[in-house]
């Protein structure tokens, strides 16, 4: 794995650490977690269309959106749930515990999805190193969440 990909992944993690609290603030200002999604997704849609056009996407690719299997569109529902969930949880459990639990859920789900090759990801063996890493992550959850 290249340093560039590692750096980009770390940057994306940092961005998540910024944007979820921003959505939490939006929910606080608007008085509603679900309402915080409205401006977020409006800006995300406009930004996504502009980026798609700027990167060379053509009309036939936009028309292809209508051919997507419905189950793939549930990612939008999941995204909305993530935003609403974060705006609910961060003020109650704190940002540190929230992110440790969030990443832990990703690590554990990633092990399962990778092992079984779910959702189009390549199947990968479950090694002692991966299991040990997951155990360490769970230990970190305990240390951060329960001190």
Q: What would you say this structure looks like, in words?
A:
Helix content is about 80%, strand content about 0%. It has helices at about 5-30, 35-55, 60-65, 70-95, 95-115, 130-145. The chain has about 150 residues and is mainly alpha-helical. The longest helix is centred in the first third of the chain and has 28 residues, at about 5-30. It starts with a helix and ends with a helix. α1 (about 5-30) packs across α2 (about 35-55) and α2 packs across α4 (about 70-95). It is built from 6 helices and no strands. It has one domain (about 5-145).
How would you summarize the topology of this molecule?
Blueprint: H1 3-30, H2 33-54, H3 59-63, H4 70-93, H5 95-116, H6 128-146
């Amino acid at each position: 794995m290249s340093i560039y990909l590692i750096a980009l992944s770390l940057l994306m993690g940092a961005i998540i650490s910024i944007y979820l609290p921003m959505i939490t603030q939006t929910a606080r200002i608007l008085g509603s977690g679900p309402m915080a999604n409205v401006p977020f997704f409006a800006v995300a849609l406009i930004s996504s269309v502009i980026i798609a056009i700027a990167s060379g996407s053509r009309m036939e690719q936009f028309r292809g959106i209508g051919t997507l299997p419905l189950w793939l569109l549930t990612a939008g529902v999941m995204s909305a749930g993530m935003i609403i969930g974060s705006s609910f949880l961060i003020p109650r459990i704190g940002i540190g515990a929230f992110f440790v639990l969030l990443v832990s859920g990703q690590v554990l789900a990633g092990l399962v999805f990778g092992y079984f090759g779910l959702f189009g990801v390549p199947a990968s063996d479950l090694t002692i190193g991966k299991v040990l890493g997951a155990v360490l992550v769970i230990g970190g959850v305990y240390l951060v969440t329960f001190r």
